[in-house]
Write a structure and sequence with these properties.
Layout lengths: L17 E4 L10 E3 L5 E3 L9 H8 L6 E4 L9 H5 L4 H4 L2 E4 L7 H6 L2 H13 L4 E5 L19 E3 L9 H15 L1
Parallel strand pairs: 1-4, 1-6, 4-5, 6-7
Antiparallel strand pairs: 2-3
């Protein structure tokens, strides 16, 4: 009988602190409506990117934190256009996007596609210290693995509050202290 070989275990050993950032319901209240020229208006009537300066301020003491964009705006606009909405302090932190990762149909149908996409990026890059701030990160229980409990890595936001919500700010601040100190 031949000895069975196990596939190598996935090791999450990349220590760079990485923040997955959505736009709608995260950096502003509501969801963006984009015209063909890339002009943005929000269904909430609130100002676009009202919380981007807040996030920049929160990250300022932590220069090693990188940002990966998870926004669906990347399906309609170029990377350069999408990044151009951010303040320079955030732009310099953007190292990638999840735009090229496709979710399985079943995950799309069940509404856990965004979480699956983020998890796929985490596995591909072997990220150890990461947090996703998003109003669409559902399915932490369904997508957990034996070695990764997603609950501590996902901050599900109220799209009417975004990161303007004090409890969301507290979760982000706690993560920053934990992974960057």
């Amino acid at each position: 009988m031949a000895s069975e070989t196990k596939p190598p275990a996935l090791v999450l050993d990349q220590p760079t602190p990485t923040l997955f950032v959505d736009y709608d319901g995260t950096l502003h209240r509501g969801h963006g409506l984009l015209d063909k020229q890339g002009n943005v208006s929000l269904d909430s009537g609130e100002p676009a990117f009202e919380y981007a300066p807040l996030l920049a301020s929160m990250l300022e003491p932590y220069p090693d934190v990188e940002i990966v964009l998870t926004t669906q705006w990347l399906q309609k606009l170029s990377f350069e256009q999408v990044v151009s909405f951010l303040p320079p302090a955030l732009v310099k932190r953007v190292v990638g996007t999840t735009a090229d990762i496709k979710a399985r149909f079943g995950y799309i149908k069940s509404g856990i596609d965004r979480t699956y996409i983020i998890r796929s990026y985490v596995f591909e890059k072997r990220l150890k210290n990461w947090l996703a701030i998003d109003d669409s990160v559902y399915g932490a229980y369904d997508l957990r693995t034996d070695f990764l409990d997603l609950t501590e890595h996902l901050v599900l936001l109220d799209p009417k509050k975004g990161i303007g919500d004090v409890s969301a700010q507290q979760r982000i601040a706690e993560w920053l202290v934990r992974c960057c100190s």
